[in-house]
Amino acid sequence: MAKSLIIVESPSKAKTIKKYLGKDFTVEASSGHLIDLPSSKLGVDIEDSFKPQYKVIKGKTKYLNQLKKAAKNADKVYLASDPDREGEAIAWHITEKLNLWDKAHRILFYEITENAVKKSIENPLKLSKNRFEAQQARRILDRIVGYKVSPILWKKVRRGLSAGRVQSVALRIIVQREREIEAFNPEEYWTLESYLKRKEDGEGNSFIANLHKFEGEKAKIPNEDEVKKVLDAISGKEYLVKSVTRKERRRNALPPFITSTLQQEASRKIRFSVKKSMVIAQKLYEGIELGDEGPVGLITYMRTDSVRVSENALGEVREYIKNKYGNDYIPAEPNTFKVKKSAQDAHEAIRPTFPNKAPEEIKQYLKEDEYKLYTLIWKRFVSSQMTPAVYDQTAVDIEVGSAIFRATGSIIKFPGFTTLYIESKEEDEKEKDSDVLKQLPDIKEKDLLDLLKLDPKQHFTQPPPRFTESSLVKELEEKGIGRPSTYAAILSTIQTREYANKDKNRLRPTLLGCSVNDLLIEGFPEIMNIEFTAAMEDKLDKVEDGDVNWVDLLSGFYGDFSKRLDQAEETLKSLKREGVPTDIECGECGAPMIVKWGKRGEFLSCSKYPDCKNAKPFIYDEDGKIKIKEKVAPEIREDVVCENCGKPMAIRQSRYGKFLGCTGYPECKTIKRMNKDGEVIEDKKDKKEKKEAKEAN
Q: What amino acid positions are annotated as catalytic residues?
């Protein structure tokens, strides 16, 4: 009897699914995409309605042959690649290449559990042509931009650079922020803190009140003279409690994760890069070996922009909360969260597939990073269905002559969801966050307070912070740039191309990144336009919905783009030839130095080249300014002597790493390899001589 064949993307997912199905099913893995545009050429016939010239990816023929063999003996073939556009393209290409149209069925796994797998097989779908065409349109768009624009960067700057339809806009956002920081002019301001206590309390029970109003106006102290004016006005005056306001506040639980919020919170709370978060989430989704239980898919599909949760999952998590925390922690009705208009609501939020599998109970089966990410997802989901946190917020206004000082604080009355989970904040948002407020003593109206200290403090306004990976993801999502599933690749490429580096975990554009950004804005203003890129994402969504034809979308884009290509070739300046000016003088002729890019990276060159051939390596100081990299005297190894001339060897650095070189260079050019511990690695000649000496003895 013929078996039914299920084709998934990864071997680990195949292993998890196999245990749920009987002998009538065979499960095979495609190992990702098998068909794609060729890597060696554009692969798109622009004149023939943007017809793609697909081919089998190098090294993937063996997987295609395995699937062909398995499909030949199957009466039904279930395409179970990931439930997104990329997964649809994989399913479509396999079906087309193996001509499976008469027996192909599409099934979608939003979680890999026995119930979900069997239910999907019982309710198969047709392949979605619209979703495939949306992926195809995006792929061709990105190929055209990358393939046509990148060579211009090679010509104008250096080889190996890349441009991308979404990547380059993300770079623009990073560079824009850097320019805001550079142009920022700090303004002085002062605050005035009073340290107070009730008369009957000891000094240990003091609290802080800040100047809130002065002479009837909201307090604004621009300089030290104004501080002295306030101090003179309140000197010797009584501190009288004018009013005490108490209000009960509620803080509702946060929704479960979607892709972007998981990426942001994993970056803030457990310091994972966006790429790392997605790699680990994929493993948790596909299945982890849990001892005798075998492979288990621990979370739902991790590429989603919907906060929807299934009725079954809501029932399970509410039962868990009741048993673990009690009825006070369960709202009367399940918490619901607003799904944004653009969300693909067929997907659920990212949640544990089994809420009763608490992280501690399965910790022994998880690697450290898997445990950290699973814990984050589990806590966020369980807490999302818990009651609000309830607290009393208190504001105390204290009258001192013509000034009003204000103290604020809160007392948690019921912790609710915060028992399990509190969201992290970006460093620059922590001061604004009111999660943790001071607790005030039992102050009453008309109480007289003792002043312990007045503390005027000088401050300066701060520039906007550089983006972290998490805050950049938030910015991209808010502006509609790219999609959550693409953020990991975008951030990885920007850093791999050395357009931006991490400085104290924040993205700082390099000179190369700024230069490429400026060239692209000059040559391709539409591509680099944030609103234009966001509108293109909406159009791709409409292709998937069947409202926009994919060829029309590409035609509308390519008309203006092709004109820009021709102009850019002619008009854009060549940084390869002209370089980027600096304020550093050439040490040999006094002319300005310029930054250029060569095979080994960026360097300083004299602007008078070829008349002056002075060139220097450079580094960036703490402020991001360029300075010449000074030569560091090599470390002498007195314990290692050159076998040819008897001079000591020194540790030197090459592009391939550290090595030992004779201090008699250039007269003596003896070198020795060394390992990371500084030990000399014997070459074949040394080993041979030692062996011969040993045999002779």
A: 301
